[in-house]
Amino acid sequence: MGGVWESNGIMTRLEDALLIQGLEGRFELPGRWATLRGERCAVFVVEAANGEGYYTWCDDPADRAVEFYTAPAQAIRDGMRRARDDASGIYQGPDLP
Q1: Cα diameter, the chain
Q2: How much is the pTM?
Q3: Contact 35, 58 (CB under 8 A)
Q4: Domain that holds residue 76
Q5: Is a pLDDT exceeding 70 seen at residue 24?
Q6: Above 60 in pLDDT, residue 8?
Q7: Which of 4, 47, 78, 87 is most buried as measured by Cβ atoms within 10 A of its Cβ?
């Protein structure tokens, strides 16, 4: 994915939040749907139909839970975190706690 965000000149809150965070991806549905590439999977952030929040999920079969947020920046951050973290819940770091 990646690349330059394209806009029709009118920025949505979702577009604005992604640009501020310096992330790359692509928009669909005139700025209401964003697809980003995370470390493990693609991340989708979609503005709710009523415009009162944002849904996010990953395309990882082990972590397809949809989460709702009222702010686009938080939906993006948490979606990208989920795309980075191991969905199995198994700690894979070098040191055991």
Answers
A1: 50
A2: 0.73
A3: no
A4: 13-84
A5: yes
A6: no
A7: 47
Q: Kindly state whether residue 68 falls inside one of the protein's structural domains.
A: yes
Query: Helices (H) and strands (E) in the chain — how many of each?
Result: 2, 5
* Residue 22 located in a structural domain: yes
| Domain membership flag for residue 89 | no
C-alpha torsion sign, points 13, 34, 26, 76: positive
Answer yes or no: is 66 within a domain: yes
* H helix or E strand, kind and range, residue 91: none
d(CA 19, CA 16): 5
Counting the structural domains of the chain, the total is: 1
- 81 with 73: CB under 8 angstroms? no
